[in-house]
Design a protein that fits this description.
The protein is mainly α and about 425 residues long. It has 19 helices and no strands. The chain has one domain (about 5-420): Sodium:dicarboxylate symporter (Proton glutamate symport protein, Orthogonal Bundle). It is globular. The structure holds aspartic acid.
């Protein structure tokens, strides 16, 4: 396991890579139209290739890591009844934090009125790719073919299969000892693979950030400034106030201590814009830097990456108010409540991958009879907001994991850091 010092150095290197990448990318953006070689050889060529190698390396770990660590986690639980308790607490907390996030977003957007300027309704259409309905998600929870579920990366189905397998190993007891040890050592090996990929993070993150900043036209941010800033403000409020209070009051962890230790995870989420691809890093951070026991983290983290998207819900709340106002449609209280409910439930069936929030936004807009084409209005600034909201999504997963772990007495901050916190 890398030392705490090694981890801090890695975090600093990731942040430096982000800053340098954003600066170089913005400079390259100014020349990308006139100097074609920049796009062809540097941005799309070298950086694009290295960046996608890095994302593939992270994604490569997700399915085997989630499967192995969850089976290991369940077998380490000891009692079957604990699982039901942990499951219900986790799901309830995920739903409550998302509902809180979107309520903050709706309140702020109603107050700031980001759509009050002079906006043209879009002439383009937005192709609404519908997210699955909750009923479909529930009926598809049990994989008829677990190998297919793994091949498709269907996280909820993988979670269900791993839990059933883990429970069976627990029930069989002594004669399944060999399997139990197998998953324990496989989990250790997977964690080492995460370390290997993380060691390349500064380069990977640099490539991803430079490419994004070089290819996105950021002038559109100025046109959509009020919308953009309202989303960022709501994200910040939820991150600092809601998570800060939850960390302090429910997880009984100093929020500054916690946020500092989450920085590299936040950096990964920001650069990849994918909660799913960040799962290995979130798991590692919770287990090794927060001392959350694997039986909790291995369950809460993959589940959170799929069903808990507070940052996404925030964007959807602000976007709904913004689009309604541009189209001159008044949202009643009942509509706002519908938005809270739909945005909270819509994320359940969709994986945490880039831009998926726009798909679920289409569902939210349809529920309150707003034109789905309105999404074309905000799409220009969505990439940057996607990076920011993914960072909040992942922080939400980590916060809830700490609360659940604390309530189960399954969190022990690493001894050295714990001591410093108590004496300092
Ligand atoms: N990219 C987000 C995530 O992976 C989802 C979204 O808002 O599009 O969590």
């Amino acid at each position: 396991m890398p030392s705490t010092k090694g981890q801090s150095q890695l975090t600093v290197a990731i942040f430096l890579a982000m800053i340098i990448g954003a600066t170089l990318g913005s400079v390259a953006n100014a020349f990308i139209e006139s100097e074609h070689w920049i796009q062809q050889f540097v941005i799309g060529g070298a950086l694009g290739t290295l960046g996608s190698l890095f994302v593939s390396a992270l994604k490569m770990l997700v399915v085997p890591l989630v499967f192995v660590s969850l089976v290991h986690g369940v077998t380490a639980l000891g009692e079957v009844s604990k699982l039901g308790r942990i499951g219900s607490k986790t799901i309830a907390l995920y739903l409550v934090t998302t509902a809180l996030a979107i309520s903050i977003a709706l309140a702020l957007a109603t107050f700031i009125e980001p759509g009050a300027g002079d906006f043209q309704q879009p002439s383009t259409t937005f192709d609404a790719n519908n997210a699955p309905a909750l009923g479909e998600v529930i009926s598809g929870l049990i994989p008829s073919n677990p190998i297919a579920a793994m091949a498709e990366g269907n996280m909820l189905q993988i979670i269900v299969f791993a839990i059933i397998l883990g429970l069976a190993i627990l029930k069989v007891g002594d004669s399944a000892q060999m399997l139990r040890s197998f998953f324990e050592s496989a989990n250790g090996v997977m964690m080492e693979m995460v370390n290997l990929v993380m060691a390349t993070a500064p380069v990977g993150v640099f490539c991803l950030i430079t490419e994004t900043f070089a290819t996105e036209g950021f002038d559109v941010i100025f046109q959509l400034g009020a919308y953009f800033l309202t989303v960022i403000l709501a994200l910040l409020l939820h991150f600092a106030v809601s998570y800060g209070l939850i960390m302090q009051l429910l997880a009984r962890i100093n929020p500054f201590w916690a946020f500092k230790r989450m920085l590299s995870t936040i950096g990964f989420a920001f650069s990849t814009a994918s909660s799913n691809a960040t799962i290995p890093v979130t798991l590692k951070t919770l287990e090794q830097r927060f001392g959350v026991q694997p039986q909790i983290a291995s369950f809460t983290v993959p589940l959170g990456a799929t069903i808990n998207m507070d940052g996404t819900a925030i964007m959807q709340g602000v976007a709904t108010v913004f689009i309604a106002s541009v189209y001159g449609i008044n949202l009643e209280m009942a509509d706002l409540i519908t938005v809270v409910l739909t945005a909270t439930l819509a994320s359940i069936g969709t994986a945490g991958i880039p831009s998926v929030g726009l798909v679920t936004l289409a569902m939210v807009l349809q529920q309150v009879s707003l034109p789905v084409e309105g999404i074309a209005l905000i799409i220009g600034v969505d990439r940057l907001l996607d990076m920011l909201r993914t960072a909040v999504n992942v922080s939400g997963d980590a916060t809830v994991s700490c609360v659940v772990a604390r309530s189960e007495n399954a969190i022990a901050p690493p001894p050295k850091e714990h001591k410093q916190r108590e004496t300092g």
